[in-house]
């Protein structure tokens, strides 16, 4: 790879000038960009890219690959300006990925997951938080179905051992069940759910290149594919999940809840994840989840709500949802308060 000085005027012109790379591809229809390893680019260069992209199309998006909390990173120039409003629109949300895997595999609990998510929400401006790319796999990490089966950390084993790694059938089936829990979290959170091709089909694999197999056309794992499709369809169709207000929190060490609602339409959605290998009976009262910018005011549940995975319909009791969750189960209930 060439080593360049991004702030050299001729290079800036080559990339962001009137006849530069950004303009060339914008004319071809590619108006949004992902910056690989944004940490290696000067803040001023990122600002130059953003200004040019927004001049070409105000709706364009500048996404950065940043592995940590974007709000408190430091470089040679001092604190990075990723979330300041004049650099990145969004970043790959690896802190969510890591916290989710740790929670679902038992290396942390729901309170720890909540701490990570609430901290990001507190640190990021609202537009940035709601634009984060929420991923559970990528080309740079172990596929979710494998990570959630209890695979070793990719940095702790050699490439040779990664090539040979194969979880037991019991552990892999547990990984597939946890994958649906991960997808339920992913589609319920504010942000942009990003599906790495094949996760929805139950593809497995350690880190690159073992996570890059061809898509299993016609041989998808239906136990994964069907609920995954139902969750993604709910995210597509439900206004509360797409742009609603959000409350979230741990109901116990084993159970995490997210409640979304859209006052102007009355749509609401309640997501519950039980990561335990035993059933859990919980009560969700959105009024008890008060942390965060949407913690004040009314957060109404629908009188009846239907789970998008099982199609089960249940009633609520005086603004409370009482549910017994089977082991390793996610439920995403949707409804309308003005129905």
From TrEMBL:
Transmembrane intervals: none
Residue ranges occupied by any Glycosyl hydrolase family 13 catalytic domain in the UniProt entry: 21-207
Enzyme class, UniProt record, top EC level: hydrolase
Stated name of the protein: Neopullulanase 2
SUPFAM superfamilies xrefs: (Trans)glycosidases (SSF51445)
Alphabetized UniProt keyword annotations: Glycosidase, Hydrolase
One Gene Ontology term of the molecular function aspect: neopullulanase activity
EC number: 3.2.1.135
Organism: bioreactor metagenome
GO terms under biological process: carbohydrate metabolic process
A Pfam match: Alpha-amylase
């Amino acid at each position: 790879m060439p080593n360049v000085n991004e702030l050299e005027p001729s290079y800036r012109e080559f990339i962001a000038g009137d006849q530069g790379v950004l303009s060339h591809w914008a004319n071809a229809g590619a108006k949004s960009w992902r910056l690989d390893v944004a940490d290696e680019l000067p803040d001023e260069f990122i600002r130059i890219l953003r200004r040019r992209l927004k001049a070409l199309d105000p709706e364009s998006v500048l996404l950065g690959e940043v592995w940590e909390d974007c709000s408190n990173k430091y470089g040679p120039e001092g604190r990075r300006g990723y979330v300041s409003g004049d650099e990145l629109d969004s970043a790959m949300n690896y802190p969510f990925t890591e916290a989710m895997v740790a929670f679902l595999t038992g290396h942390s609990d729901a309170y720890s997951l909540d701490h990570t998510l609430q901290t990001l929400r507190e640190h990021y401006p609202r537009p940035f938080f709601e634009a984060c790319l929420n991923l559970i796999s990528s080309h740079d990490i172990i596929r979710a179905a494998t990570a959630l089966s209890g695979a070793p950390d990719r940095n702790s084993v050699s490439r040779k051992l990664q090539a040979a790694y194969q979880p037991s059938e019991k552990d892999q089936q547990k990984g597939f069940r946890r994958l649906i829990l991960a997808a339920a979290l992913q589609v319920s959170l504010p942000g942009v759910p990003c599906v790495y091709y094949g996760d929805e089909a139950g593809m497995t694999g350690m880190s690159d290149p073992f996570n890059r197999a061809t898509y299993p056309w016609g041989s998808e794992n239906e136990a994964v594919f069907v609920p995954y499709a139902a969750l993604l369809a709910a995210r597509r169709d439900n206004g509360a999940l797409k742009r609603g207000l959000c409350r979230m929190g741990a109901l116990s060490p084993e159970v995490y809840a997210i409640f979304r609602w859209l006052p102007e339409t009355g749509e609401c959605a309640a997501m519950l994840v039980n990561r335990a290998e035993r059933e859990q009976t919980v009560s969700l009262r959105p009024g008890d989840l008060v942390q965060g910018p949407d913690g004040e005011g009314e957060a109404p549940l629908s009188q009846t709500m239907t789970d998008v995975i099982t199609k089960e319909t249940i009633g609520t009791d005086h603004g409370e949802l009482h549910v017994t969750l089977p082991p390793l189960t996610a439920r995403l209930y949707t409804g309308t308060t003005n129905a």
